[in-house]
Amino acid sequence: MAKFELNAEKRDAKGTSASRRLRSAGKIPAVMYGAGKDVTMLALDHNSLYHQAQNESFYTSILTVNMGGQKEQAVLRDIQMHPFKPRIQHLDLQRISATEKLHMPVPLHFINQDVAPGVKLQGGIVAHLMTEVDVTCLPHQLPEYLTVDLANLNLGQSIHLTDLSLPDGVAITSLGHGGANLAVVTITVVRATVEAEAVAAPAAAPAEGATEAPAAAEAGKK
Question: In this predicted structure, what is the pLDDT of residue 190?
Fold first, then answer.
């Protein structure tokens, strides 16, 4: 798993005006809480943080927060972006304990989509029904992502939550609403093909009746 270290300064000033001054100075206001400790108010360098936040792993990794040599581990709980500028506005961090399980969303990485029989041989398309799942585990067991292998998936088949391969100590926190074993990905028929078949079917019906019309007219003459 990728390692990220955030160099932070403790701050005392709070409020909208103080946050605005921090941002003007190229800093980001942040808070860190949890693990039975008081909330710590922090200031982080924007450019350094923005660069790290471009990495997908940043959002599911254990982060080391370095406050002038005092280091604590935390996970990202919320990141607020500017409405239209590529700027981070605020960060929420949660301290973790090495002996306590945590709950985190973990992204899904789909592989072998192009060689799946349902795509390569049967003309289907892959439909991603989920892009991440919530898991629980100890901090050192937290996976960077979960792999979903479509190598053997046929048209009309799906991979469900209980089909996912999980590392030791990692569990999915919920199987959907009411404990349902929800589908993660499926291979479905291309929509255009279905519509073409639906249009072609009614068009064939008049052709069958057309052979009967002349016969009925001939019978009328007799």
Answer: 84
Whole-model pTM: value is 0.78
Whether the Cβ atoms of residue 104 and residue 142 lie closer than 8 Å to each other: yes
CA distance 208 to 212: 7
Q: How confident is the model at residue 192 (pLDDT cuts 50, 70, 90)?
A: low
Scored b (16 or more CB within 10 A) or e, 188-204 reads eeeeeeeeeeeeeeeee
Tell me what pLDDT residue 15 has: 85
Phi first, then psi: give them for residue 210, nearest 5 degrees.
-65, -30
Which has the minimum average pLDDT: 32-41, 48-57, 198-207? 198-207
Tracing tokens 């439909």 back to the chain, one arrives at: 127
Give the position of tokens 């079917």. Answer: 201
Sign, CA dihedral 82-88-89-92, equals positive
Which distant-in-sequence residues (6+ apart) come within 8 Å of 173 by Cβ?
A: 103, 134, 135, 136
Q: Is 221 exposed, middle or buried (0-12, 13-18, 19+ CB in 10 A)?
A: exposed
For residue 19, count other CB atoms closer than 10 A to its CB.
18
| 14-25 confidence digits (pLDDT tens) | 888 999 999 999
157 and 118 Cβ atoms separated by less than 8 Å: yes
